[in-house]
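Sample 1 of the test manifest.
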Amino acid sequence: MTWADFTLAFFSLDILRQAWPILLSGLVQTLLLSAMVVPLGLLGGVLLALLSTVRSPWVRWPLMAWVDVFRSLPPLVLLVFVYAGLPFAGLEVSPWGAVAIGFFLNTGAYYGEILRAGIESVPAGQVEAARSTGLSRGQAMAWVVLPQAVRNVLPDLISNTLEVVKLTSIASVVALPELLFQARQAQSVTFNATPIMAAAVAYFVLLWPVVRLLSRLENRQLAGRR
Amino acid sequence: MAAIVRAHGVHKHFGALHVLRGVDLEVAERELVFVIGPSGSGKSTLLRCLNRLEEPSGGRIEVDGIDMLDRRTDINRARQRIGMVFQSFNLYPHMTALGNVALALRKVLKLPRAEADERARAALERVNLADRAGHYPGQLSGGQQQRVAIARAIALEPRVMLFDEPTSALDPELVGGVLQAMRELRESGMTMVVVSHEMGFARAAADRVVFMDHGLVVEEGPPEAVFGAPREERTRAFIRQIDRH
Ligand SMILES: Nc1ncnc2c1ncn2[C@@H]1O[C@H](COP(=O)(O)OP(=O)(O)OP(=O)(O)O)[C@@H](O)[C@H]1O
Ligand SMILES: [Mg+2]
């Protein structure tokens, strides 16, 4: 393969110009998808983390089972099951619906574990101080514990969010026209790898600032611990 | 004089451990009661039962006429009348001094922000920390943090204040400022229950000293009597021991 062949296969401006509209629509879908699944996962995570503060074994054991199951299942398997499996039980789910359910279950379990660790990192004296001034359990959680919990596990939350955004590419298997799906479409009609390359670059440009931010936070936490 | 705190026959178990074994404690309005006793005798547990941070396993507790152990009692409302100061301050590290003091004013008393801040500022003024309102706990000395904690409690205008070893986590040179704030609080007429080993403060400010051992009140009386001429052998041994420090 010559240099010219190489650039033609991966970096062809002509191809890029042709594929641009379809890639852009894919990027928009990926952004929309992320804007849906990250809050959804966080919501699930907060619910699970709050449930984890309940001492009763009637909550504890089912919760543990839930989290274990959805952290063990590969997200791709989960997604395919929701999309292609549930219809056999008479439950038709749209691609967006399947992605929403799959990510809520999978991502929620991960965010839940991170937030639970955060909540447990807040000393008991904080809640006692809050309760001693008349705050209810819920108020103490909302104003005293959760803000500190989130701050204590912020790098983990960001890191998980990064993974979640990357993971939205699995929506391509249920034919949701996000960035990877569109790039594959463009690649198959142009017989050229440039669209895939462009998608990779788009992911990188999107996520690299987050990666940088994460590194800085992690370094700062390390420095703070010293 | 009317009693603000009436605790009768209070028991507390932690599993098999019987930590309070029928404690009686009455505190009159404007009285300052000092609670002393060896480590593990149940002093903290007693204080924490009074505002039900710990659930007593038996007995009766009334604070300002409210039955603290009645299931129908709104515990969050009852706790507004009972301020508590902890050994380790327990300030909220993510809020400024002002924010720490104002939180309950806003969320519990539901005061609008401006009014809550104003009252919080006045409380900080009372512990001589008005100029530190915008500082975070991490930017304050231990003594200043403890005074903010006192301000956080008194801002709710409680009927009684509970102090659990408020100076024992402090460097010696910072103790004075906290004791000064407590002295001023006492002069303003606050009813106080203080667990502490600050014997000098007890001698100067306490109306009554209660000596606890093994989950029971062993002896009580005016400070001169308990420190100067203790009746019980256990009290004598304890006082000999702390006087050596
Ligand atoms: N949450 C708990 N679970 C189990 N045991 C506890 C708990 N809190 C206190 N205890 C035990 O109860 C006993 C009394 O403790 P408490 O803290 O009331 O003593 P104290 O008089 O305040 O002692 P110190 O002077 O060391 O603060 C101790 O044996 C302690 O280990
Ligand atoms: Mg104690």
